[in-house]
Amino acid sequence: MIRTETEYKNAQERLEQEKETLQRQREQLEEMDLSEEEVERALGPLISFRDQLREEIETYERMRRGDLSALHDLRSIGRWLIGARIAKGWSLSDLADALDVSVQQVSRDENNEYQGISTERAQHILDALGVRFRLEVEEPITEDENDSETVPA
């Protein structure tokens, strides 16, 4: 996941390099008189890497525009918090200052996508970013459903 402008710029440069590498590889494979299917199969890993890099760049650009997807699963709150920081235009340092912690701490937390974050800590980050958060339950569990999904101890 791209988390900073520096990482974004590096990813863009890497994408350009990957496009050039892919083109050179394609030309070399075609010179070997391989079928189109064989060429595509040989290039598969490079194409997959390029596509993944492109997707990461597009995701970062969406976050920067403030286009954050709805949070449908609390396990993805870490990614969402990172996106909220990016959407606000804040650096890791800006968030660290607002939270009164070190940049290294924020960087570690974001590298781990806030794995295991407490609700109190998540709320503290949301407050620092000026984000209002609302939890909405779409399909509440009824008493009958709750009984059938009880996990034995």
UniProtKB/TrEMBL annotation:
CDD domains recorded for this chain?
HTH_XRE
Show the ranges annotated as biased composition (Basic and acidic residues).
1-29
SMART domains xrefs = HTH_XRE
Q: Name one GO molecular function term.
A: DNA binding
Segment Disordered: which positions? 1-36
Coiled-coil zones = none
Superkingdom of origin organism: Bacteria
Which Pfam families has this protein been placed in? HTH_3 (PF01381)
- Describe the location of the HTH cro/C1-type domain by residue ranges: 81-137
InterPro entries from the entry? Cro/C1-type_HTH, Lambda_DNA-bd_dom_sf
Q: Which PROSITE patterns match?
A: HTH_CROC1
Q: What is this protein called?
A: Ribosome-binding protein aMBF1 (Putative translation factor)
